[in-house]
TrEMBL record:
<dbReference type="GO" id="GO:0009002">
    <property type="term" value="F:serine-type D-Ala-D-Ala carboxypeptidase activity"/>
</dbReference>
<dbReference type="GO" id="GO:0005886">
    <property type="term" value="C:plasma membrane"/>
</dbReference>
<dbReference type="InterPro" id="IPR050396">
    <property type="entry name" value="Glycosyltr_51/Transpeptidase"/>
</dbReference>
<comment type="similarity">
    <text>In the C-terminal section; belongs to the transpeptidase family.</text>
</comment>
<feature type="domain" description="Penicillin-binding protein transpeptidase">
    <location>
        <begin position="327"/>
        <end position="573"/>
    </location>
</feature>
<protein>
    <submittedName>
        <fullName>PBP1A family penicillin-binding protein</fullName>
    </submittedName>
</protein>
<keyword id="KW-0645">Protease</keyword>
<keyword id="KW-1133">Transmembrane helix</keyword>
<dbReference type="GO" id="GO:0071555">
    <property type="term" value="P:cell wall organization"/>
</dbReference>
<keyword id="KW-0133">Cell shape</keyword>
<dbReference type="Pfam" id="PF00905">
    <property type="entry name" value="Transpeptidase"/>
</dbReference>
<dbReference type="InterPro" id="IPR023346">
    <property type="entry name" value="Lysozyme-like_dom_sf"/>
</dbReference>
<dbReference type="InterPro" id="IPR012338">
    <property type="entry name" value="Beta-lactam/transpept-like"/>
</dbReference>
<feature type="domain" description="Glycosyl transferase family 51">
    <location>
        <begin position="60"/>
        <end position="235"/>
    </location>
</feature>
<comment type="similarity">
    <text>In the N-terminal section; belongs to the glycosyltransferase 51 family.</text>
</comment>
<keyword id="KW-0573">Peptidoglycan synthesis</keyword>
<keyword id="KW-0121">Carboxypeptidase</keyword>
Length: 684
């Protein structure tokens, strides 16, 4: 009876234990499943870590870097040789591809070793655990930190595959000397990309993270080689390399650089500042992303042109002068800003005079006025009188009397082509008022200049300020035949994984008539053509002896500003020189700086390039006519000088010049008989 009762008690106890065990197992299963589901719901942990942002010139060279003192450059696992990851796995975590974040066997072994030694002599962290620590945690040794490490380790394993985790690890681990990640380490120690690492080089690097202050070959090559031997031995054990390869690698002579390759931009600092500003304003990025987001910023900067611009400004302006300079160059077809100088010394002043300064452009505004005139029926041969003139207005506006340079006037009619070449102010104001003062303002806006304009008679002479970069953009639109462009500093931006997050906008809009744009471009070559000399010499005479090809351009000046802007179809540039506080420019030498900087930059930048590629090619609806440069009529064999001038078909002059017939008759020698030649044969 007691035996039966005892058996029943034991059975009930067993049943209770079984039920409790089942309940416990169920509870644990539910907890684990809930934990797993929670982790899945949380999703993949963000892998945003501070990484260096690199800035590239148009040729792919690096021109600058932003970082927090730590060099970090992301490189994909596919881009590095397999022996790099083999070395890391062999020395850090041989079971990486088979465990689920924790190596229980290593943990047990580490516990036993540490208990036996009565201290920590062995670790058991897997690559996943180290990656979690690098990403999310501090290096303190509290229990809460260890629990969080375990939590993040599980999140990584659940949400990322092994290759992604390994890629993250090799890109975040410290290799000492401020180098984080295999790419930064390879650049620092060997001066090359991790893509090019040999087995010997990779095995040295794989041994460093154990103790960067000990195993860095810069600190101790002997200890680094000793650690390399362990790495190579581990690689042999895992079958990654053969004993023969290990021996060859251990004997390979290595050369260590010990220098980071990229630094804060020393070249083109004003350009660099502008790019960072545009990353915020156009790409919509915040300061932290720009500084530490591991971005690759591909810019339009042409390193050769930038060097030329900086050198030319330095050579041209006297060291003793306080004159400042703003310079920019652009590809008219794309709007790419290829060079930028915002001042003579960035360390003295970071104010960017090319993109921020608003100065009166003077006569450089006239080409924009004459484009409006072409649209309203003017041609290069349209004549107006150049003489002292006072304009009086019936609407209560004050009288206005413009003056030509040195008060020189033709006191007769001149053509629009000659007026532009000589920079006649009276002709410009007459044209401005004839068109209506809104015409110039509207044209200025069409050409991308957004700075506020004063709608007054003197606007034709450039009395409302513009930024040099705006004027350059306007000239570029003329140069490319009237297609809208905007200044492009950033071509594209990639995130640390290579995904494009910003690209330059593609603009396809015709804002000027291509025929009128070409006619204007050719008129702008006149400032360098002595055939257009008249009551004064053409304004480009002082630099004509430095020219090796045809340019279109326009100079401009006020009491405190000196400008020169111009282009070929492939390159446009603008120069402003003056005093920051608007002091009057009095020295003749100072007044010539802008023109000399401009021509020297253009000549050196285009040196060796085929002139045909930079030639002005007329569109189909344009025709060339030889005209007398003084009266604008069709030239004949009696004209001592003619200039081939372009007109939109149907607007070319039809009247022949007869002003020189009497001179031709005087030159004839009656008794000498000669074969009659056509007039064009005599000209050529």
């Amino acid at each position: 009876m007691e035996t039966a009762t005892g058996a029943k008690k034991k059975w009930r106890t067993f049943r209770v234990f079984a039920v409790l065990s089942l309940l416990a197992a169920t509870a644990v299963t539910i907890i684990l499943l809930s934990f797993w589901l929670w982790i899945k719901i949380l999703g993949p942990p963000p892998l945003s870590i501070p990484q260096s942002t690199l800035y590239y010139a148009s040729d792919g060279s690096i021109i600058g870097e932003s970082n927090s003192g730590e060099k970090r450059y992301w490189i994909s696992l596919d881009e590095v040789p397999s022996h790099v990851s083999d070395a890391v796995i062999a020395i850090e975590d041989r079971t990486f591809y088979s465990h689920h974040g924790f190596d229980l066997k290593r943990i047990a072994g580490a516990i036993a070793a540490n208990v036996k030694a009565m201290g920590k002599v062995q670790g058991a962290s897997t690559i996943t655990q180290q990656y979690a620590r690098n990403l999310f945690l501090t290096l303190d040794k509290t229990w809460s930190r260890k629990l969080l490490e375990a939590f993040y380790t599980i999140r990584l394993e659940v949400n990322y595959d092994k290759d992604e985790i390994l890629e993250g690890y090799i890109n975040t681990i410290s290799f000492g000397h401020g180098a984080y990640g295999i790419e930064a380490a390879s650049q620092f120690y060997y001066g090359k990309s991790a893509k090019e690492l040999t087995i010997a080089e990779a095995s040295i690097l794989a041994g460093i993270p154990k103790g960067p202050g000990i195993y860095s070959p810069i600190i101790s090559e002997e200890k680094a080689k000793s650690r390399q031997a362990l790495v190579l031995g581990a690689m042999v054990k895992t079958g990654a390399i053969s004993p023969e390869e290990a021996k060859a690698a251990s004997q390979e002579k290595l050369f260590f650089i010990g220098k980071h390759p990229h630094h804060q931009a020393e070249k083109a600092p004003y350009f660099y500042d502008t790019v960072k500003k545009e990353l915020k304003e156009k790409a919509g990025l915040d300061d932290r992303s720009i500084a530490l987001g591991g971005l690759k910023v591909y810019t339009a900067l042409d390193v050769k042109q930038q060097d030329i611009a900086e050198k030319v400004i330095s050579e041209t302006i006297s060291e003793t002068s306080d004159i400042q300079a703003g310079f920019a160059a652009m590809d008219p077809e794309t709007g790419h800003v290829t060079a930028l100088v915002g001042g003579r010394n960035y360390k003295d002043s970071s104010f960017n005079r090319a993109t921020q300064a608003v100065r009166q452009p003077g006569s450089t505004i006239k080409p924009l006025l004459y484009y409006a005139a072409l649209e309203h029926g003017f041609t290069p041969s349209t004549v107006l009188r150049s003489e002292p003139t006072t304009f009086r207005f019936s609407n209560g506006q004050s009288d206005y009397t413009p003056h030509n340079f040195n008060n020189q006037y033709a006191n007769g009619e001149i053509t629009m082509a000659q007026a532009l070449a000589l920079s006649d102010n009276v002709y410009a104001v007459k044209t401005h008022l004839f068109l209506g003062q809104d015409a110039l303002v509207n044209t200025i806006r069409r050409l991308g200049i957004s700075t506020k304009m004063k709608n007054v008679p003197s606007l034709a002479l450039g009395t409302s300020g513009v930024k040099p970069i705006e004027l350059l953009n306007a000239y570029s639109i003329i140069a490319n035949g009237g297609k809208k462009v905007e200044p492009v500093f950033i071509v594209r931006v990639e995130d640390f994984r290579g995904k494009v997050i910003y690209e330059e906008p593609k603009i396809k809009e015709q804002v000027l008539e291509p025929e009128f744009a070409f006619v204007l471009s050719h008129m702008m070559t006149g400032m360098f053509d002595k055939k257009l000399n008249g009551y004064a010499t053409v304004t480009g005479e002082s630099v004509m002896n430095q020219m090796s090809r045809e340019y279109a351009g326009k100079s401009g000046s006020t009491n405190s500003d000196s400008w020169m802007a111009g282009f070929t179809p492939k390159l446009a540039s603008v120069v402003w020189t003056g005093y920051d506080k608007g002091k009057e420019i009095t020295l003749t030498e100072d007044k010539l700086y802008a023109k000399n900087i401009w021509i020297r930059f253009m000549e050196r930048s285009l040196e060796g390039q085929d002139e045909k590629e930079h030639a002005f090619l007329p569109p189909a609806k344009v025709t060339a006519v030889p005209v007398d440069p003084v009266n604008g009529k069709k030239a004949t064999n009696s004209c001592p000088v003619f200039r081939l001038t372009y007109f939109v078909k149907g607007t070319e002059p039809t009247e022949f010049c007869t002003d020189h017939l009497h001179e031709l008759n005087k030159e004839r020698v009656p008794h000498k008989k000669e074969k009659k030649k056509h007039w064009w044969q005599r000209i050529f």
